[in-house]
Protein backbone atom coordinates (compact mmCIF):
# COMPACT_ATOMS: atom_id res chain seq x y z
CA UNK A 1 0.00 0.00 0.00
CA UNK A 2 1.37 3.40 -0.85
CA UNK A 3 0.13 6.62 0.54
CA UNK A 4 1.13 10.24 0.43
CA UNK A 5 2.67 11.62 3.58
CA UNK A 6 0.58 14.50 4.84
CA UNK A 7 3.20 15.57 7.39
CA UNK A 8 6.51 14.10 8.59
CA UNK A 9 6.40 11.53 11.40
CA UNK A 10 6.88 13.68 14.48
CA UNK A 11 5.60 11.60 17.38
CA UNK A 12 8.98 11.04 19.06
CA UNK A 13 12.03 13.24 19.65
CA UNK A 14 14.81 10.71 19.15
CA UNK A 15 17.82 10.17 16.90
CA UNK A 16 17.24 7.45 14.27
CA UNK A 17 19.94 5.78 12.18
CA UNK A 18 18.57 6.11 8.63
CA UNK A 19 21.12 3.67 7.20
CA UNK A 20 22.35 6.02 4.47
CA UNK A 21 24.71 3.81 2.41
CA UNK A 22 27.18 6.62 1.63
CA UNK A 23 27.75 7.83 5.18
CA UNK A 24 31.49 7.12 5.05
CA UNK A 25 31.80 9.22 1.90
CA UNK A 26 29.88 12.03 3.56
CA UNK A 27 32.16 11.82 6.59
CA UNK A 28 35.24 11.95 4.36
CA UNK A 29 34.20 14.56 1.78
CA UNK A 30 31.43 16.80 3.08
CA UNK A 31 32.34 20.20 4.55
CA UNK A 32 29.52 19.53 7.03
CA UNK A 33 26.52 21.52 8.11
CA UNK A 34 26.95 24.08 10.85
CA UNK A 35 25.32 26.80 12.91
CA UNK A 36 26.49 30.40 12.86
CA UNK A 37 25.12 32.50 15.69
CA UNK A 38 23.96 36.01 14.86
CA UNK A 39 22.67 37.22 18.24
CA UNK A 40 26.20 37.78 19.51
CA UNK A 41 29.51 38.70 17.88
CA UNK A 42 31.16 35.45 18.99
CA UNK A 43 30.88 33.72 15.59
CA UNK A 44 31.18 36.87 13.46
CA UNK A 45 31.58 40.58 14.26
CA UNK A 46 29.68 43.48 12.72
CA UNK A 47 32.03 44.95 10.11
CA UNK A 48 31.44 48.59 9.11
CA UNK A 49 30.12 49.04 5.56
CA UNK A 50 30.31 52.79 5.01
CA UNK A 51 29.16 55.23 7.72
CA UNK A 52 25.61 54.05 8.31
CA UNK A 53 25.77 50.31 7.71
CA UNK A 54 27.49 47.12 8.85
CA UNK A 55 27.74 43.54 7.65
CA UNK A 56 27.80 40.37 9.75
CA UNK A 57 29.40 37.75 7.51
CA UNK A 58 27.86 34.27 7.91
CA UNK A 59 29.26 32.05 5.14
CA UNK A 60 31.62 32.01 2.16
CA UNK A 61 31.71 29.34 -0.56
CA UNK A 62 34.48 30.06 -3.07
CA UNK A 63 33.53 27.10 -5.28
CA UNK A 64 30.11 28.51 -6.05
CA UNK A 65 30.85 32.18 -5.49
CA UNK A 66 28.34 32.28 -2.63
CA UNK A 67 28.43 34.68 0.30
CA UNK A 68 25.90 34.96 3.09
CA UNK A 69 25.55 37.79 5.56
CA UNK A 70 23.27 40.13 7.43
CA UNK A 71 23.31 43.67 6.04
CA UNK A 72 22.32 46.22 8.66
CA UNK A 73 21.53 49.73 7.42
CA UNK A 74 21.18 51.51 10.76
CA UNK A 75 19.09 54.52 9.75
CA UNK A 76 17.31 55.78 6.64
CA UNK A 77 19.77 55.43 3.79
CA UNK A 78 20.71 54.09 0.38
CA UNK A 79 22.80 51.28 -1.08
CA UNK A 80 23.69 52.66 -4.50
CA UNK A 81 22.64 51.25 -7.86
CA UNK A 82 24.12 47.84 -8.55
CA UNK A 83 23.85 45.15 -11.18
CA UNK A 84 23.69 41.46 -10.25
CA UNK A 85 25.53 38.81 -12.25
CA UNK A 86 24.19 36.05 -9.98
CA UNK A 87 21.14 35.10 -7.94
CA UNK A 88 20.25 36.72 -4.62
CA UNK A 89 17.94 35.42 -1.89
CA UNK A 90 17.21 37.82 0.97
CA UNK A 91 14.86 37.88 3.94
CA UNK A 92 13.96 41.11 5.69
CA UNK A 93 14.62 40.57 9.41
CA UNK A 94 13.86 44.00 10.88
CA UNK A 95 12.76 47.41 9.65
CA UNK A 96 11.79 47.84 6.03
CA UNK A 97 13.38 48.34 2.64
CA UNK A 98 12.42 49.00 -0.95
CA UNK A 99 14.03 49.54 -4.32
CA UNK A 100 13.46 52.71 -6.34
CA UNK A 101 12.82 50.48 -9.37
CA UNK A 102 9.97 48.39 -7.85
CA UNK A 103 6.56 49.07 -6.31
CA UNK A 104 6.81 46.90 -3.17
CA UNK A 105 8.17 47.51 0.33
CA UNK A 106 9.79 44.56 2.13
CA UNK A 107 8.83 44.05 5.79
CA UNK A 108 10.06 41.51 8.37
CA UNK A 109 9.74 37.90 7.24
CA UNK A 110 9.34 38.79 3.58
CA UNK A 111 11.39 37.08 0.86
CA UNK A 112 13.30 39.09 -1.75
CA UNK A 113 14.54 37.31 -4.88
CA UNK A 114 16.92 38.95 -7.34
CA UNK A 115 18.09 37.43 -10.60
CA UNK A 116 21.11 37.90 -12.88
CA UNK A 117 20.88 41.01 -15.02
CA UNK A 118 18.78 43.00 -12.57
CA UNK A 119 20.01 46.43 -11.51
CA UNK A 120 18.41 48.43 -8.73
CA UNK A 121 18.86 50.97 -5.94
CA UNK A 122 18.13 49.97 -2.34
CA UNK A 123 16.47 52.51 -0.03
CA UNK A 124 15.33 52.22 3.56
CA UNK A 125 13.07 54.96 4.86
CA UNK A 126 12.38 53.19 8.16
CA UNK A 127 13.56 55.29 11.17
CA UNK A 128 15.59 52.29 12.35
CA UNK A 129 16.75 51.27 8.88
CA UNK A 130 16.73 47.61 7.90
CA UNK A 131 18.36 44.28 8.66
CA UNK A 132 18.50 41.90 5.68
CA UNK A 133 19.65 38.30 5.70
CA UNK A 134 21.19 37.43 2.34
CA UNK A 135 22.25 34.20 0.60
CA UNK A 136 23.95 35.62 -2.45
CA UNK A 137 25.77 34.27 -5.45
CA UNK A 138 27.89 35.89 -8.11
CA UNK A 139 29.44 39.29 -8.66
CA UNK A 140 27.60 42.53 -7.88
CA UNK A 141 28.69 45.56 -9.92
CA UNK A 142 28.29 49.01 -8.39
CA UNK A 143 27.76 52.15 -10.47
CA UNK A 144 27.93 55.86 -9.62
CA UNK A 145 25.20 58.45 -10.22
CA UNK A 146 26.41 58.88 -13.82
CA UNK A 147 26.11 55.16 -14.54
CA UNK A 148 29.89 54.76 -14.50
CA UNK A 149 31.19 51.44 -13.19
CA UNK A 150 32.86 51.78 -9.76
CA UNK A 151 33.73 48.31 -8.46
CA UNK A 152 32.66 44.68 -8.19
CA UNK A 153 31.86 42.88 -4.95
CA UNK A 154 32.02 39.08 -5.05
CA UNK A 155 32.89 36.26 -2.65
CA UNK A 156 36.55 37.37 -2.62
CA UNK A 157 35.60 40.95 -1.84
CA UNK A 158 33.39 39.79 1.06
CA UNK A 159 36.08 37.47 2.45
CA UNK A 160 38.59 40.35 2.33
CA UNK A 161 36.04 42.66 3.99
CA UNK A 162 35.69 40.17 6.87
CA UNK A 163 39.36 39.18 7.20
CA UNK A 164 40.84 42.68 7.00
CA UNK A 165 38.50 43.81 9.81
CA UNK A 166 39.51 40.78 11.91
CA UNK A 167 43.21 41.48 11.33
CA UNK A 168 42.84 45.17 12.22
CA UNK A 169 41.02 44.36 15.49
CA UNK A 170 42.87 41.22 16.63
CA UNK A 171 39.79 39.04 16.09
CA UNK A 172 40.41 35.38 15.25
CA UNK A 173 39.17 34.36 11.80
CA UNK A 174 36.34 31.83 12.27
CA UNK A 175 36.86 28.71 10.10
CA UNK A 176 33.14 27.90 10.44
CA UNK A 177 32.34 30.71 7.98
CA UNK A 178 34.16 28.94 5.13
CA UNK A 179 32.10 26.23 3.44
FE1 LIG B 1 20.46 43.82 -5.19
UniProtKB/TrEMBL annotation:
Membrane-spanning ranges: none
Origin: domain of life: Bacteria
An example molecular function term from Gene Ontology annotations: dioxygenase activity
Signal peptide residue numbers: none
Stored SUPFAM superfamilies: RmlC-like cupins
Database matches in InterPro entries: RmlC-like_jellyroll, RmlC_Cupin_sf
Annotated keywords: Dioxygenase, Oxidoreductase
Protein name per its UniProtKB record: 2,4'-dihydroxyacetophenone dioxygenase family protein
Record organism: Sphingomonas lycopersici
Origin organism lineage: Bacteria, Pseudomonadati, Pseudomonadota, Alphaproteobacteria, Sphingomonadales
Amino acid sequence: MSSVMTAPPSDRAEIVDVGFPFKSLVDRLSPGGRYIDAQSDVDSPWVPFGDKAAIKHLAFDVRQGIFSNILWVKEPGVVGTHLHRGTIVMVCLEGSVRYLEYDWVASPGGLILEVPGESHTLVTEHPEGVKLFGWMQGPIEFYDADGKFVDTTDVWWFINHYESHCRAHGIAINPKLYL
